[in-house]
Design goal:
The chain is mainly alpha-helical. It is built from 5 helices and 2 strands; from the N terminus they run αααββαα. Strand 1 and strand 2 (121-125) form a beta hairpin.
Length: 193
């Protein structure tokens, strides 16, 4: 015996009496009155509750937009740093190639010249692979230090991106809960209308 939406209560009651008889309807009503009917003590459609929900939705959307902006910003910063890292790698390769090309002599007589900013030059032996590596790395030391710093910044941004993504996901989950509350309120208002 379920009441249909949109029908007048008197019409429904009359149909029930016609179908089941007045005594059966009275007995069912008496039994229903004697049963404990759970009640909701928290009102969900008061003016204050509706305004609160609207404010929460507005704040949640603002939070999500801000978290999304931060997420986008970290990607832009990472892209710029990745571009700088590629430039430094290329610069290192060119500098080291040029350094290798300045080596004079061959075999046991091979040597390179390291110029210093004060105008002095030092002649160094480069007779084996270890010495040649040290010689070429000497010329690219500044770029290598900057590359290491840029790569550290990229790793820091990746950690930041992870945290930003988690924050964005948490805010989306909060919005989902607020949306469910708003849908409940909308359904209650639709039912009461």
């Amino acid at each position: 015996m379920q009441l249909r939406k949109g029908k007048n209560m008197k019409e429904e009651l009359q149909k029930l009496i016609e179908q089941y008889g007045a005594d059966a309807v009275a007995k069912a009503a008496t039994e229903a009155l004697n049963k404990h009917v759970p009640t909701i003590n928290t009102p969900v459609v008061t003016d204050e509750q509706l305004i609160n929900t609207i404010s929460q939705l507005d704040a949640a959307v603002t939070d999500i937009l801000e978290a999304g902006r931060k997420n986008e910003e970290t990607y832009q910063n990472k892209a710029a740093l990745a571009r700088r890292a590629r430039q430094l790698e290329t610069s290192i390769q060119i500098t080291e190639s040029e350094a290798i090309n300045t080596i004079c002599g061959t075999g046991k007589d091979a040597y390179g010249i390291i110029p210093y900013s004060d105008g002095t030059q030092v002649k160094v032996a480069v007779t084996n692979d270890t010495q040649r590596d040290a010689f070429r790395r000497h010329f690219s030391a500044t770029d290598r230090k900057e590359l290491a710093s840029v790569e550290a910044d990229i790793k820091a941004i990746e950690v930041s991106q992870f945290k930003t993504r988690e924050d964005l996901d948490a805010k989306k989950e909060a919005l989902s809960c607020i949306r469910a509350k708003a849908q409940l309120q909308a359904a209650a208002l639709t039912y009461l209308a």
